[in-house]
């Protein structure tokens, strides 16, 4: 039975690892990023992939630098390495440990959106479709030949979170379609079109700030592309407000983009010029998430006419 090493870190990668384990593929080890301190109390927390791997009794490696565990990985006598959102570039000598193939499950329609935030950027850029690509691992980031592509539609209501879940399911389906051929070295790999390459770098702190001056659909896309994490924000009355649940009303407003123009009992209504943003859940600076109704009740009618900046 072919011996597989899995490398991944976040929830998205858990879907792929779980797929391998539930379908009885021989995963002999798991590599994940080191545990990190999380939350206000800075509690040292295992990665989602580590937690899943330990629940199945698998050995887990968490090097700060993947090159440092070359000898340990060599002892595993690997046939295949499968990666998904691991978070480090993998050196050539480790890729060469796999006797058959090294493949990566990537959440975009390659060659579009190479990099660490393809799901966020697909939403932010207003894409109508995304998908999963399974490619051969090479030294250059997300640049290997592709053996499988599966597409999913992106609706106007999708957020980064809902698209993440669609793509995780899509990724498991794609992997099951090709994994046997990959392990038997029978899969067909096609080079990417380098003229169509684009990148999706990790979300920066600056990108978390929503620029309401842009108005229109781009503001809405930016907000929903950051839900649930890291959650975009704007400034209202000199305080940060994070946006956690929004929708869109296809009506125009004469008010400047970013101005709160009403409250309908459930949503704060915010002008985007040619559209109206409906905010149903938000988080004022220093407070817990709350409904727009609770926020409005705490401020009253005086909040109408105020502007997000």
Characterise the protein shown here.
The protein has 309 residues and is an alpha/beta fold. It has two domains: 4-196, Formyl transferase, N-terminal domain (Rossmann fold, 3-Layer(aba) Sandwich), CATH 3.40.50; 206-303, Formyl transferase, C-terminal domain (Methionyl-tRNA Fmet Formyltransferase, Chain A, domain 2), CATH 3.10.25. It has eight helices and 15 strands. The protein has helices at residues 11-22, 48-55, 70-74, 92-95, 118-124, 160-183, 216-224, 292-299, and strands spanning 4-8, 27-31, 36-38, 43-45, 60-61, 80-84, 101-106, 129-136, 146-153, 233-236, 239-249, 260-263, 268-271, 276-284, 290-291. The strands form three sheets. Strands 5-2-1-6-7-8-9 form a seven-stranded mixed sheet. Strands 10, 11, 12, 13, 14 and 15 form a six-stranded antiparallel sheet that branches. A hairpin with a 4-residue loop joins strand 3 (36-38) and strand 4. The chain is elongated. The model has no long low-confidence stretch (mean pLDDT 95).
């Amino acid at each position: 039975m072919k011996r597989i090493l899995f490398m991944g870190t976040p929830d998205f990668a858990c879907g792929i690892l779980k797929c391998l384990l539930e379908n009885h593929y021989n995963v002999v080890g798991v590599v994940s990023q080191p545990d990190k301190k999380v939350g206000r109390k800075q509690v040292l927390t295992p990665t989602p992939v580590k937690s899943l791997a330990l629940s199945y009794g698998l050995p887990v490696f968490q090097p700060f630098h993947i090159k440092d565990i070359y000898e340990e990985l060599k002892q595993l006598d690997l046939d295949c390495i499968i990666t998904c959102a691991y978070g480090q570039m993998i050196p050539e000598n480790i890729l060469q440990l796999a006797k058959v193939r090294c493949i990566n499950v990537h959440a975009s329609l390659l060659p579009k959106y190479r990099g660490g935030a393809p799901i966020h950027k697909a939403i932010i850029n207003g894409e109508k479709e995304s998908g999963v690509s399974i490619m051969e691992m090479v030294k250059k980031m997300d640049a290997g030949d592709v053996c499988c592509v599966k597409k999913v539609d992106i609706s106007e209501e999708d957020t980064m979170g809902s698209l993440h879940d669609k793509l995780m399911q899509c990724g498991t389906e794609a992997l099951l379609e090709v994994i046997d051929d990959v392990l038997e070295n029978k899969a067909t790999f096609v080079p990417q079109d380098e003229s169509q390459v684009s990148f999706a770098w990790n979300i920066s702190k600056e990108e978390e700030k929503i620029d309401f001056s842009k108005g229109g659909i781009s503001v809405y896309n930016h907000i929903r592309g950051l839900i649930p994490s890291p959650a975009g924000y704007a400034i209202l009355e000199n305080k940060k407000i994070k946006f956690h649940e929004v929708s869109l009303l296809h009506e125009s407003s004469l008010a400047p983009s970013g101005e709160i123009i009403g409250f309908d009992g459930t949503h704060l209504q915010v002008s985007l010029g040619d559209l109206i943003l409906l905010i149903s859940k938000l988080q004022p600076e220093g407070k817990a998430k709350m409904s727009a109704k609770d926020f409005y009740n705490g401020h009253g009618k005086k909040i109408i006419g105020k502007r997000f900046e």
